[in-house]
């Protein structure tokens, strides 16, 4: 049987953001307003103990804790499993089913430092945005050696471009976008849309628009390939 793969799905081709490096799929209105309200209700119905407060955002982890020795899989509730299934059936994880969700909540003014998602995941990240838009910013990684005449490797100098992710959209990043670039979210309360936002057309927005951020909840849905069944294995050398 042919491997399920996004590239081989002709109906998804129209969602590729052609002005970004390979490969970004941006699917506006992936979920309906009703689904968005239902998901937000479930998020805020979760037990208080499910939340971890970090500086600048809080999060819920579902599916287990990814670990180099393998993740001890935990049951994913139905309200999230539905979307793991829907996104996996698009071929986002090469025929595998998503088994991990990191849910982040950002109040206006909050964000996340530039980072890469690393080797514990299948190299695809898929994100459903709830409640508000944000701008996801992309950066060149720090290069090991600094050469004469090279600009200092500040965050500002390494910044490349941004993607506008509106509420209810699905964003899929693979290949160079996953492996070669860092991503982050600036902690600000409003965004000025400039030509550095490379998917304005796809997201139905215009250069010069100023958009205020509300509270955004993102569902980052991924596949962790290495699973262990036995809790004791983690303790062994
Ligand atoms: O909220 C987002 O869209 C980004 C989340 C993210 O980069 C992460 O949790 O690693």
Automatic annotation (TrEMBL):
A GO molecular-function annotation: metal ion binding
Spans through the membrane: none
Cofactor field: Fe(2+)
Keywords: Dioxygenase, Iron, Metal-binding, Nucleus, Oxidoreductase
Main location: nucleus
Location of this chain's protein in the cell: Nucleus
InterPro entries: AlkB-like, AlkB-like_sf, ALKBH6, Oxoglu/Fe-dep_dioxygenase_dom
Residue ranges constituting the Fe2OG dioxygenase domain according to the UniProt record: 97-225
UniProt cross-references to PROSITE patterns, sorted A to Z: FE2OG_OXY
Gene Ontology CC terms: nucleus
Listed PANTHER family: ALPHA-KETOGLUTARATE-DEPENDENT DIOXYGENASE ALKB HOMOLOG 6
Family recorded in the similarity comment: Belongs to the alkB family.
Identification of the protein by name: Fe2OG dioxygenase domain-containing protein
């Amino acid at each position: 049987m042919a491997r399920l793969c996004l590239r081989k799905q002709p109906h998804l081709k129209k969602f590729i953001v052609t002005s970004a490096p390979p490969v970004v799929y941006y699917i506006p209105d992936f979920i309906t307003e009703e689904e968005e309200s239902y998901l937000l209700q479930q998020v805020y119905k979760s037990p208080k103990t499910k939340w971890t407060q970090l500086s600048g955002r809080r999060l819920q982890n579902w599916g287990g804790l990814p670990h180099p020795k393998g993740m001890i899989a935990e049951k994913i509730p139905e309200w999230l499993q539905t979307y793991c299934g829907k996104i996996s059936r698009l071929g986002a994880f090469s025929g595998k089913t998503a088994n991990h969700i990191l849910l982040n909540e950002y109040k206006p003014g909050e964000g996340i430092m530039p980072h890469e998602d690393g080797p514990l995941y299948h190299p695809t990240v898929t994100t459903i945005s709830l409640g508000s838009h944000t701008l996801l910013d992309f950066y060149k990684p720090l290069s090991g050696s600094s050469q004469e005449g090279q600009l200092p490797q500040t965050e500002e100098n390494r910044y490349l471009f941004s993607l506008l992710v509106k509420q209810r959209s699905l964003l899929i990043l693979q290949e160079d976008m996953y492996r070669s670039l860092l991503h982050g979210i600036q902690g600000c309360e409003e965004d000025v849309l400039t030509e550095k936002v490379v998917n304005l057309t796809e997201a139905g927005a215009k250069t010069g628009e100023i958009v205020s951020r509300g509270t955004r909840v993102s569902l980052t849905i991924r596949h962790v390939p290495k699973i262990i069944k036995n809790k004791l294995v983690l303790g062994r050398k």
